[in-house]
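Quick question, first post here. What does this chain look like in 3D?
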Amino acid sequence: MRNWEKVLPVLEALYERGQAAGHGWTLDTEFLLLHQQHAGALASHGLVELAGREDRAELSVLEGRPVRWAARLTPHGRDALTYGRLRPRADRRPAEAALGRAVELIPSQMAALRMFISLTGQLQVPLAAGLAEQVRTAACDHGIKRWRLHLTEDQIASVAYGLWLHRITGSAAEASRFTREYGVTYKPPSPEGPWPPHVQASSERTTAP
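> Answer (accepted):
Ran it through. Tokens below.
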């Protein structure tokens, strides 16, 4: 199949209908001829298994009618579906991009942020809603070696907190760069403040040295 944009919908449909059927197979009555052709093309890539004569005979008995075509995902197809669901999309639509502020992180910042979100459920100060998903689906521009995310203000403040943790346990470079570029710095609350503390961020942009 040359148009790989059609791969994921076909894999999704095969998986969902196979699961609904209980036996894992998607049958001829559930797939249009065009979709059957797409599934056949994916079979040549090892992503789909087409039912042979014996499988069709067993399915015919189960269905109480002749089953002339059936297909299901191979293990490779299931892995491709899992990967495809999570794969970052480089061509974000303008509406998606408008949902948050564009942020670019260098590899060391991204590594610190991944460490931060890996602690979800263990931290006293919780991550901002949706931040883990944004990190997981971030796209990397390999030309400039930057990870691009679109974050809400709450998520940006949460990133600042994660980089503050990174700062006090080892390296200040990542948090300092974030402050220079986005004017956001995490400031711990006073001892008299409520517990657990809330993420606070300065809105003043500092000047790079």
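The longest helix spans residues 153-168.
The CA atoms of residues 101 and 110 lie 16 Å apart.
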